[in-house]
Design a protein that fits this description.
mainly alpha; 7 helices; about 90% helix
């Protein structure tokens, strides 16, 4: 069943990745899509730079996981969360507070909306970068079925968010706020769920 779950999971993952841009393009104008694309790129960049070194250490620890090393896997995951959270807390606060003004200064006042979007997307982006390597633990544990469920639930949530935003004629910033905070809670729950899975392996 591994190839079946893995292929379907990856297919849904690709849909999830492109959904926000496609949905915003369908609901709003091209200018809104441009604001969102710039905001999403800028907010992701520092996270990628910060995450790289921490992720390499984490992946090296879980790469050769064996069933007898479940305690090590749990501890490595908790250590990763602790270290990464400490590293990103200050950048997250600074971005959340100052991005609107920085965008107006760097890109001009017409791009201030992108700065406002960054302030909303920073919470989603933070938990996404925290959860991505932890979700990969499911591959190590051969739990592709659970991974598929996680990706499918996210797809359903995204469809619901953007459909309701269209139906209720929400403004773009309101839609992005709902999207960001919904995904923030989704990724937080996923992290907690996987921690519980790892704890169960040690019982």
């Amino acid at each position: 069943d591994f190839p079946k779950y893995q292929l379907l999971s990856q297919f849904i993952l690709k849909i999830n990745a492109s959904m926000p841009i496609l949905a915003l393009g369908a609901i709003y104008d091209i200018k809104t899509v441009g604001y969102f694309a710039l905001a999403n790129t800028i907010v992701s960049l520092p996270m990628k730079l910060i995450a790289n070194s921490v992720l390499q250490v984490y992946y090296s620890k879980i790469a050769n996981f064996k069933k007898s090393d479940s305690k090590l896997l749990l501890q490595s995951t908790i250590d990763f969360l602790r270290v990464f959270s400490k590293i990103i807390i200050l950048p997250v606060i600074l971005i959340a507070v100052f991005s609107e003004y920085l965008f107006a200064i760097l890109f001009g006042s017409t791009w201030k909306t992108s700065g406002e979007m960054v302030q909303l997307l920073i919470f989603l982006t933070t938990t996404r970068f925290l959860s991505m390597p932890i979700i990969s633990v499911l591959n190590v544990l051969k739990m592709q079925k659970l991974q598929l469920k996680i990706n499918f639930i996210r797809l359903v949530m995204l469809v619901a968010i953007f459909f309701l935003s269209f139906l209720l004629s929400f403004e773009a910033l309101k839609t992005i706020a709902i999207y960001s905070f919904s995904m923030f809670f989704f990724y937080t729950i996923v992290i907690i769920k996987i921690i519980f899975v790892l704890r169960e392996l040690n019982e």
